[in-house]
Design brief:
It contains 14 helices and 12 strands. It has a 7-stranded mixed sheet with strand order 9-8-7-6-10-11-12. It is globular. The protein starts with 6 loop residues before the first helix and ends with a helix. The structure holds nicotinamide-adenine-dinucleotide.
Amino acid sequence: MNEFDTHTFRLAVAQFDEAAERMGLDHNLRERLKSPQRSLVVSVPVRMDDGSVRVFPGYRVQHDSSRGPSKGGIRYHPAVNLGEVAALAMWMTWKCALADLPYGGAKGGVAVAPETLSRAELQRLTRRYAAEIFPLIGPDKDVPAPDVGTDGQVMAWVMDTYSQQVGYAVPGVVTGKPLSIGGSLGREEATGRGVADVTLAAMRELSLDVATATVAVQGFGNVGSHTARILAEAGARIVAVSDKTGGVYDAKGLDIPALLHRHGVERRPLRECRMGEAITNDELLALDCTVLVPAALSEQITQANAAKVRCRILAEGANGPTTLEADRVLADKGIFVIPDILANSGGVIVSYFEWVQDAQRFFWSADDIRHRLHEIVTASFQRTLEFARSRKVTMRMAALMNGIDRVAQAHLARGLYP
Ligand code: NAD
């Protein structure tokens, strides 16, 4: 398994091992589920605007497809590697199973800093990457979606490249695409809305009043910004948000719509938005607040800083933001953790709605989508909470054990081929 051996992959496997041990999972199944079903490594040559050619490494990993087509985002980030993509694919498997979606898990990525490319270069990179992974993807095989560094436009180029190869429009090959080509209402905000829904459910459970709650959000991209906006709309005070340049802090509460405009529309780094006091990402994670939402990259809360975390609820918008060692420290401190595969499952849930709408050629209203998302994600939260209490395990273990069990049942029912 050396080709996958990175920090992030070791974290995903360590979580799996702990859950499998507690479940008494069959040894043969354990071996299979620890490594992905299928991995593709590609080289993506791109003609740059100056006429030169640069080659970027790209990946697509399908962890498991026993319950249906695999599903997972495409990440553009310089640190993308095979091990990280494999870890994210494994988490997608448990996440889809936990929400009981008929999907397996996958992930893809290209090691590139997208902000350094022109729009034309980004389009050429995306189309060539899509062409390279073409044999693996398709509405019944593997369905990509946006992740860090990619968005609806990137999905539109993937959809068009795939459709050009087969000769007709195939909207269901990706989710998170624009409405004009079969996207879904509510998909863009879906992950943040799901994070907000489960955070509010946890606050009710812990008898915390939203009107006096304070929230700090690390990462102000798709997930972080919608989470902040929706929690602010629910009455919470958002005291800090950050991006990779650092963050801003105001104990009285930040004006989120104004920040969304300056950062999202005017494209200014948060530090240059002239609001609140400047704060580093490390300081943000250590703020005394009701809710902390890591919504950037993995392994942000580690043994080194876990003792300094002072929130009541940790709602993991990002995938894998907390290491195993940090988890133990948070548990000792009595912090209520809503684990990633539950907290950020709103994205794949609404992706599932989009895929269903594409297949039916029949589109739902925004209200329908919000309502159905709320039902699935809060039911999933309640089931996980009850399981955690009855089995005396953490919310993370409860979520993993439930997800893994559904996948194990599918493998046992299907049997081993040949
Ligand atoms: P994004 O690219 O839209 O935003 C990422 C944000 O994180 C940006 O604000 C960026 O500046 C910030 N960031 C990057 N490096 C940072 C650092 N070192 N410190 C602090 N901030 C940093 O990405 P996204 O789609 O919002 O994804 C964020 C996380 O949520 C990822 O872990 C992703 O896998 C996870 N996630 C995303 C979705 C989705 O639907 N987009 C669904 C589930 C989970």
